[in-house]
Design a protein that fits this description.
Helix content is 50%, strand content 19%. The protein is built from six helices and eight strands; from the N terminus they run E-H-H-H-H-H-H-E-E-E-E-E-E-E. Strands 1, 2, 3, 4, 5, 6, 7 and 8 form an eight-stranded mixed β-sheet that branches.
Amino acid sequence: MAIVRSLPNTNVGRSRALSRGKKKNDDTPVAERFLSTPTTTRLNTIQPDYKSKMLVVDQKQAGSLNATAAKNVEVEKLRTLDSHFLQVFNFMVAEGKATPGDRAFYGMAASSDAILPLFSEALVLEAAEKIISGEAARMAIAGAIAVPIPTVAEVTAQLTAFQTTNTAQSAAIDALDTAQEAVTALNTEADGVVKKVWDEVEAHFNEESIESKRANSREYGVVYVSTEQFIISGRLKVTATGLPPADAIITLLETGAIGTYAPAGGDFTLKTGLTGDGTLHIVSTGLPDKDVIVVLTGSDINVGEILL
């Protein structure tokens, strides 16, 4: 089994490497610091900038998720109104209050009482627009009876509500994209600084035993991985209920590896070659994120039950 150094390949990994390198250097007495002045200057410049821009990404990510959730609520309301409107109109046809041919006003087939398909957002919007324009055109016919419930005014109001949240979601996605681009713009320098720091750290501890060298280098954020994969396993449980969470994403922050989760029993597994301390970052809908430190020695490990 070979153990090799692994430079970060995710933004979270870059941020952690920069932060750990700077913190260890800052915590070391001045007389004992060995990072070169140019490297220290670059590290001290980019780390706070990278960290602050990553925080903005987190904020914009939250804004995007919330805006998407709000839009989805309005889509479902519109889907329900579309469906009910067209079903009630079909009842009117059956009762002789409208003709089968009038179905064409809403884009439906005259020979069938099948309503318009509504399984996608685009189709929900298309149906709403056909209802609004179709009802206006049908009402221009003498003696036509309006669909009583839901009214076309209700459909129109809900379409407007959706459009408002859709605009907000679009703006939130654009804001997230801008924040992510700001981080991406720093990645070339971040990668260069991390490599420079790690090179100087490993060079400083080069005369120690291999394990001592790695242990000391890890304190500066250097990541080592095995060429062989092993498994981290465990079980998640919600403290308040004693039950497994309905969903969970488990990420090993040092490498970006993502595990698999089985909500039926709360069990998870994650494959990695990371050695040394690792951080399991657990995200579950409606619960606070949780970080769990695990010690990885190059073999399978079960971390037991993790309470969220």
